[in-house]
Amino acid sequence: ISPPGLAWRLPKGSDLVLELHLNRTGKTEPVQAAVGFHFTEEPPTNTCHTFKLGSLDLDFPAGATNTIVRDAAELPVDVDVLAVYPHAHFLAREMKGHATLPDGTREWLIWIRRWDFNWQGEYRFRKPLRLPKGTRVELEFIYDNSTNNPANPHHPPKRVLYGEQSTDEMCELGLQVLTHRPGDLQVLEEFGRRQRDRRVEAWLRGRLARDASDAEAMTRLGLILWTSNRSQEGWQHLDRAVRMRPDFAEAHYNQGVFLRFHGQPAAARQALETALRLEPTFPRAHQQLGFTFAQLGLAAEAERSFEKALELNPADTESRAGLTELRQILRSRGNPN
Question: How many domains does the chain divide into?
Fold first, then answer.
């Protein structure tokens, strides 16, 4: 049971989406899913956060029996751990998660000696586990991609990388935590974002080490580098991806976004229009082209781009806000359109 005050606020108009992961049986099966909601009269007074350890840079050769994956982080604030969420697929054999407090005390978060794919889920503490600022939380998962693993989905075993399909592999340990002081939640969220970017960067660099012509990894690494204040290195990767695969719309799109935010709207327009020639139904490219046209003072073109973005993705709040602001400006100038 969660501590009091942690109700989840569901705003009016929210979409509730149920995603099911199903195992094949070899024949047609009926599926009847249901979700139960528990309501409260008390408004929330606090908010949980799920902090994650893990790795995306997974590569398990066929026959490897004892591949160890580790990750660690030092908590920037005091937290109470309410629950843990271990996640892996069929190759995982053993899972360990523990915390080393600043005074050297070691606390187990979870230890599953013989992992079963059906055990992924929430493991709640009987009472919250207090971890002070400076605690080092660590993950160690062991994988077996050999015939010794009866759960191995590949016969014979084959190389397995990170991926969302059950026959791919994953490595993640989520910690549901509660902060205490005002501002600590924001500090923890920002810290988690940097940790996530670090994992994504390592994964993308690993992909490029295995295949230097991987334009998708190249352009996405460029974005990570740019948003982590390494703009020059980021641009080099973005530009290289376009040169590697001139027919790759995402590479042109990412290049266009970079140019727009670096005060080069004319060059950004060219990159985004190229992306749309390659992929006309690319909603985010229409959105960014709308903002680019607005920077260039081309109001009618900006309006059409925002409208197209919303036609393709009605949930695009940025395009809706951009279109609203644009029309307000036009009205203030005496242009009814």
Answer: 2
Cβ neighbours, 10 Å, residue 230: 15
Partners of 112 in the β-ladder: 95
Residues paired with residue 164 on neighbouring β-strands, in sequence order: none
| Residue 193 included in any domain | yes
What does pLDDT average to over the chain?
A: 94
CA 58, CA 139: separation in Å to the nearest integer?
A: 14
Q: Which pTM was predicted?
A: 0.82
Domain that holds residue 155: 48-197
Instruction: For the chain, give the longest Cα–Cα distance.
Output: 75
pLDDT of residue 120: 85
Measure the CA–CA gap between 215 and 204, rounded to whole angstroms: 10
pLDDT tops 60 at residue 226: yes
Query: CA 110, CA 139: separation in Å to the nearest integer?
Result: 9
Residue 91: how many CB atoms within 10 A of its CB? 29
Asked if the structure places residue 9 within a domain, the reply is no
Q: Are 154 and 160 a contacting pair, CB within 8 Å? A: yes
Indicate the residue type of 166: S
CA proximity to 196, closest of 207, 184, 188: 188
